[in-house]
Design brief:
- It contains nine helices and eleven strands.
- The chain is 33% helix and 19% strand.
- It has one domain.
- It is globular, with a radius of gyration of 20 Å.
- It is of the alpha/beta class.
- The protein starts with 7 loop residues before the first strand and ends with a helix.
- A seven-stranded mixed sheet has the order 4-3-11-9-10-8-7. A two-stranded antiparallel ribbon has the order 1-2. Strands 5-6 form a two-stranded antiparallel sheet.
- Strand 1 and strand 2 form a beta hairpin.
Length: 322
């Protein structure tokens, strides 16, 4: 196991960067070797092509959204040279998509984020995730790509600020806290369904360790955009409404979210969306999806896992009493 202190790079001006972990982040910025050489990225390009063709055959539009690593956007904040930001996977894959004629399905966030990064923070200093500003910018880029009318009064939505120990700050000794803000985007959108995995995320006893397969549905009868979308994403979206999922739920007539890096095509056919949106963090691209995901089977397996975790917790508690 990698010691926590070796997973975090303390950059300039208080910026913290993930450098190792299960995804070996700094190895992803290489054309040859490492975790995501050009040869492997070509498989991603081919995957996007297959997804576009399969979605088109179903009468569904497809959009591919990569959330850049902080190192990709704030590479100038490295205290020592860890990576070459211009070799980021998102940049190299965008170039491949341009050459392959599928650029319309690839939503580029690197260029607009870099353009805005000097004027405002788009990520938390002590976390790997985007903040309110980064999430909003990405939402507007996605709306532009999908020809959706964005919600006009998002700046008026209620929020809360609080001190938090985030994923990178918590790895330091001593831990570094940060004042963060969460915004509740949903005003007219209503979550009408959440499966058991989505509810596990709201229960502290699981520590957010059970998340793949979380599924939620939203409706918004007042939305200007009458389309239905199916969003496959990760922790930059979630089944809650304070990140990208909430923004899209407020924008569209219907939205379904599934936490998965693989697409369940059986679900796509059943849900009959107008739009299929795939969102993935750049660091998770080291593993190429196979799209053999089955939501129903995953939910069953995760429910069994949760039951085992509850049993183990109760057993440990009983042993402590004696």
């Amino acid at each position: 196991m990698i010691p926590p202190q070796l997973m975090v790079h303390e950059g300039l001006d208080g910026w913290l960067f993930l450098t190792a972990g299960t995804n070996f982040v700094t190895t992803l910025y290489q054309r040859e070797g490492g975790g995501l050489p050009d040869e492997k990225l070509a498989s991603w390009r081919d995957l996007i092509i297959r997804r576009v063709e399969r979605a088109r055959a179903l009468g569904v539009g497809y959009a591919h959204l990569i959330v850049p690593e902080k190192l990709t956007i704030y590479g100038d904040k490295q205290a020592t040279r860890l990576v070459e930001p211009d070799l980021a996977p998102a940049i190299r894959l965008r170039e491949m998509c341009l050459r392959s004629g599928i650029a319309d399905h690839f939503v580029d966030l690197v260029e607009p984020m870099r353009a805005a990064a000097g004027a405002r923070h788009l990520y938390w200093l002590t976390d790997t995730h985007w903040n309110v500003e980064g999430c909003l910018l990405s939402y507007h880029e996605l709306c532009k790509a999908l020809d959706l009318t964005p919600v006009a009064d998002l700046d008026d939505r209620p929020g809360r600020q609080f001190q938090a120990l985030m994923d990178l700050g918590g790895k330091l000794d001593p831990p570094r806290w940060e004042m963060i803000e969460e915004r509740e985007w949903a005003r007219d959108a209503i979550r009408i369904y959440a499966n058991s995995i989505a509810h596990f995320l709201d229960q502290a006893e699981y520590g957010a360790s059970i998340h793949v397969g979380a599924h939620a549905k939203f409706i918004n009868p007042t939305a200007k955009n009458r389309q239905k979308a199916l969003l496959f994403g990760d922790s930059f979206s979630t089944p809650r409404t304070h990140l990208l999922t909430g923004l899209l739920a407020e924008t569209l007539r219907e939205l379904e979210f599934v936490w998965s890096a693989n697409i369940d095509w059986e679900l796509v056919e059943k849900a009959k969306p107008d739009l299929l949106i795939f969102e993935i963090s750049e660091r998770f691209m080291a593993l190429l999806p196979n799209d053999r995901f089955n939501l129903r089977k995953t939910e069953f397996a995760q429910t069994v896992r949760a039951a085992r975790m509850r049993f183990a917790h109760k057993w440990a508690s009983r042993r402590l009493k004696f």
